[in-house]
Design a protein that fits this description.
Blueprint lengths: L2 H15 L4 E5 L2 E6 L2 E6 L3 E5 H8 L7 H16 L10 E5 L27 H39 L2 H13 L4 H4 L3 H19 L9 H27 L6 H4 L9 H14 L5 H11 L10 H10 L24 E2 L5 H6 L4 E2 L3 E7 L5 E7 L3 E7 L2 E5 L5 H10 L12 E4 L1 H8 L4 H14 L1 H6 L3 E3 L12 E12 L4 E14 L2 E2 L16 H15 L1 H4 L11 E7 L3
Parallel strand pairs: 4-5, 6-7, 11-12, 15-17
Antiparallel strand pairs: 1-2, 2-3, 3-4, 7-8, 8-9, 9-10, 10-11, 13-14, 14-15, 15-16
Helix pairs in contact: 5-7, 7-8, 10-11, 11-12
């Protein structure tokens, strides 16, 4: 067996042993349990692995020396759990008798007390007097407590009658008016909701200041605030999200500031620390991130990245204000994680390094020192590149397997907000990006190539487009006869002038003579706009290599089509 085969088998064995593991944080370390048993302790500079795992592997594999074996175990740990990059070269591996046992139950420490001499026995009369005295004490205590409870009960009952959902809703609505520029005043939905509720509670308490003493204000405020948060927080956060619907810019979201990481992510980490008290597994924390992210305007698809980011930068005390460029660990700088191709898009969306089957994604720099994220097929074809918040997709197609890889690793879809930032490039143009040429230079190169084709396009004969109308809605099938007239240069785009000569009925897949004039409304439901929309779809496909933007957006495209209807 070759060294590479041995290493691959070692990784598979370790994957099987630690399948379904659970991670618990202890101080600066991470304890790894499988089936409730402790199998590994991950510390910042070294790992301790249960000795039974070493024995199991040695029965299956042979390594010439322990150093090579530990090196490969270290690589497996880095790939699957991540460690600080500066610690990788010197990261230690130890095998000790953890015995695969669960956490030992906490046993109360037995305290040896000095035995005192026995007290002399009391007479019956002494015991009777003690019981009578204690009984009188209890009676007086109860009378005092009843009197205090009655007073408190009356006050609280009067307060609770005022603190109804219907009554507080009026104060909430009035408080909303106080924050007309909510998108500018608040960083996220949580801040806005708390501010509205706080204003509403202050106004409410000001209207009933005869119900409580000044010294009790904080206690009463907290009681009413918590109640209103349960009632109204979700609604207020929805108001913020629908009003300030623009998502946080992705690069700004994860950009490290001079002081450390972005404040929005720091806030999320604080919330996750609270969630972690109730949810111990990665799956549960991922669900929490899915729930919390929209309220913080974090773009969809970054949940896995945020979970890795949180795990690598976890602080038990919940204080993330100390994260700096020196101690911050970014998952995008870690070694690539092995994953199946079917899950590749989870990594490309978050721009995380990964390795699949003949598919990989990683970060690199161009000759100008600018970072970019690249997804390669078979270690050769760059199929996706992300730089400066813009995604580039190769317009060239290779084998069916490469097309399948592109489908599984696609980092965006038509419905999300990246639409205006996805561009088709040829392989030559992808290489231009990798060499450090600007986006504008690449788009200009596209326009120059198309302009050179103008004589060839103008010389072509009349072309027929046979648009698909989908389900039969009564609109007759039709063909469009058109021709490219000219290509004019505009401001940072080309204007392709298209002459539409005629629109004729299509019967049995063939065009037939059509006396009706679609421009005069004589061809039922066939309008000039419908004709232009259908032809526009065809032309976007024909000019795919030159148009630039993958999704239709006239203001952000390399080409604009103008239609001239020539039928009289």
């Amino acid at each position: 067996m070759s060294e590479q085969e041995s290493n691959t088998l070692l990784h598979e064995i370790l994957d099987g042993i630690f399948d379904g593991y659970e991670m618990k944080y202890e101080g600066d370390g991470r304890n790894i349990y499988v089936g409730g048993n402790l199998f590994m302790i991950l510390n910042p500079t070294s790992s301790v692995i249960d000795k039974t795992i070493l024995e199991k592997i040695q029965n299956l594999l042979y390594y010439d020396n322990m150093s090579d074996f530990k090196d490969e175990v270290r690589r497996w740990i880095i790939d699957n759990f991540g460690i600080k990059k500066s610690s990788e070269p010197r990261y230690g591996i130890q095998f000790k008798n953890l015995l695969g046992t669960p956490e030992p139950p906490k046993v109360k420490k037995k305290i040896e007390r000095e035995r005192k001499p026995a007290m002399p026995k009391k007479t019956r009369e002494q015991l009777r007097k003690e019981r009578e005295g204690y009984s009188n004490y209890l009676k007086a205590q109860k009378e005092f407590e009843d009197q205090m409870n009655l007073q408190e009960s009356n006050d609280m009952q009067r307060l609770k009658r005022r603190v109804s959902y219907e009554n507080m809703e009026k104060f909430i609505q009035n408080a909303e008016i106080e924050f007309p520029t909510l998108c500018d005043d608040f960083d996220d939905a949580f801040e806005y909701a708390d501010a509205v509720i706080s204003r509403a509670v202050d106004d409410f308490l000001a209207s009933i200041d005869d119900f409580y003493e000044d010294d009790d204000y904080d206690d009463v405020y907290n009681t009413v605030f918590d109640l209103c948060r349960d009632w109204f927080a979700d609604g207020q956060m929805d108001i913020y999200m629908s009003t300030c619907e623009e998502e946080e810019d992705e690069d700004m979201m994860f950009e490290q500031t001079e002081m450390g990481i972005n404040s929005i992510v720091v806030k999320l980490f604080g919330l996750l620390n609270e969630e972690k008290k109730k949810k111990k597994t990665k799956k549960e924390l991922l669900e929490s991130i899915n729930k919390l992210a929209p309220y913080l305007n974090i773009p969809k698809g970054h949940e896995l990245y945020l979970l890795e980011l949180y795990s690598l930068n976890y602080r038990k005390d919940g204080d993330y204000s100390g994260l700096t460029k020196d101690n911050f660990v970014d998952p995008r700088d870690m070694r690539a994680k092995t994953t199946s191709n079917s899950k590749a898009n989870l990594y490309t969306i978050a721009q995380l390094p990964f390795k699949g089957s003949n598919l990989e994604g990683y970060w690199d720099k161009d000759r100008n020192g600018k970072k970019y994220y690249i997804v390669k097929s078979y270690g050769w074809y760059p199929v996706y590149i992300q730089r400066d918040g813009i995604w580039y997709e190769t317009v060239d197609r290779y084998s069916s397997s490469t097309s399948g890889q592109m489908y599984r690793s696609q980092p965006y879809d038509y419905s999300n907000k990246l639409n205006s930032k996805v561009y088709y490039l040829t392989q030559d143009e992808m290489d231009m990006i990798l060499r450090g040429l600007s986006h504008e230079e690449v788009m200009k190169s596209k326009r120059e190539k198309l302009k050179k084709l103008e004589p060839e396009l103008k010389a072509k004969k009349l072309t027929t487009d046979r648009p698909s109308l989908g389900w039969d809605d009564g609109t007759p099938n039709f063909n469009i006869k058109f021709k490219i007239n000219s290509i004019d240069e505009g401001d940072d785009k080309l204007i392709v002038n298209v002459d539409i000569y005629d629109v004729v009925r299509r019967v049995g897949g063939k065009g037939v003579p059509t006396p009706e004039n679609y421009l005069k409304g004589e061809l039922r439901d066939v309008t000039p706009k419908l004709v232009e929309d259908k032809l526009n779809q065809r032309l976007r496909t024909d000019f795919k290599k030159y148009i630039g933007s993958k999704y239709e957006n006239v203001e952000d495209t390399n080409i604009e089509f103008k239609f001239n209807h020539l039928k009289k």
